[in-house]
């Protein structure tokens, strides 16, 4: 296993473990959640930024200039809200214009 693959595995394992701590059946509301800081350890591990336009699309795993939290499959909450809950960062709200390395297209 390469170092990059191992590092990604550890990052995703940490996200999965954190996700187990979320209470099932309780919908998170962005107004109830603190905003995710870019210097949060999990945010840094996932390369989260509040403004997706600051990330070079060619450095992304799935290069696309239009990737942002608002069009990611993992975001929750109401379309149009500036700050919304995300499955990757339990207990925190992400900026809809943000981006992280776990971005996945809505399918």
Topology:
Elements (H helix, E strand, L loop, with lengths): L2 H18 L20 H5 L37 E3 L7 E3 L12
Antiparallel strand pairs: 1-2
Number of domains: 1
Low-confidence stretches: none
Strand content: 5-15%
N→C terminal distance: 30 Å
User: What proportion of the residues is helical, as a percent range?
Assistant: 10-25%
Q: Overall 3D geometry?
A: globular
SS field, number of helical segments: 2
Using only C-alpha atoms, the radius of gyration works out to 13 Å
Order of helices and strands: HHEE
What does this structure look like?
The radius of gyration is 13 Å and the shape is globular. The longest helix is centred in the first third of the chain and has 18 residues, at 3-20. The chain has helices at 3-20, 41-45, and strands at 83-85, 93-95. The chain is built from two helices and two strands, in the order H-H-E-E. It is mainly α. It has one domain (3-21, 33-95): High potential iron-sulphur protein (High-Potential Iron-Sulfur Protein, Chain A), CATH 4.10.490. A two-stranded antiparallel ribbon has the order 1-2.
In short:
This protein has 107 residues and is mainly α.
């Amino acid at each position: 296993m390469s170092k990059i693959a191992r590092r990604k595995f550890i990052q995703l394992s940490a996200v999965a473990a954190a996700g187990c701590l979320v209470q099932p059946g309780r919908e998170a509301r962005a107004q109830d959640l603190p905003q995710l800081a870019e210097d949060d350890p999990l945010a840094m591990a996932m390369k989260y930024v509040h403004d997706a336009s600051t990330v070079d699309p060619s450095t992304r795993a799935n290069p696309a200039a239009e990737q942002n939290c608002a069009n990611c499959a993992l975001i929750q909450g109401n379309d149009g809200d500036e700050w919304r809950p995300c499955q990757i960062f339990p207990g925190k709200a992400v900026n809809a214009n943000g981006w992280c390395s776990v971005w996945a297209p809505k399918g």
